[in-house]
Amino acid sequence: MPKLKTRRAAAKRFRRSGSGKIMRRKAFKNHLLEHKSQDKKRKFSKIATVHESDVPNVELMLPYL
Q1: In CATH, what is the architecture of 8-61?
Q2: How does pLDDT run across 11-48, given as a tens digit for each residue?
Q3: Where is the signal peptide (predicted)?
Q4: d(CA 64, CA 3)
Q5: Residue 47 — φ and ψ, nearest 5°?
Q6: What is the edge-to-edge ordering of all strands in the sheet holding 15-16?
Q7: Phi and psi of 15, rounded to 5°?
Q8: Strand, coil or helix: 39
Q9: Residue 63 phi/psi, 5° resolution?
Q10: Given this model, what pLDDT does residue 38 score?
């Protein structure tokens, strides 16, 4: 059986937590930050878990994660 290739774009965006969940960054923290409140920007800085309906797709992209 040949080895499976990892999708490099997905490998840069997702990590596995200690409990086995797949973690991701939140959106909307890249640019146009002047008009966003400090509270909003602070919430966007936190790490989020990938929704359970998206986990199978991410696991296909990252076979060895």
Answers
A1: Irregular (4.10)
A2: 999 999 999 999 999 999 999 999 999 999 999 999 99
A3: none
A4: 10
A5: -90, 140
A6: 15-16, 22-25, 47-49
A7: -135, 160
A8: helix
A9: -65, -25
A10: 97
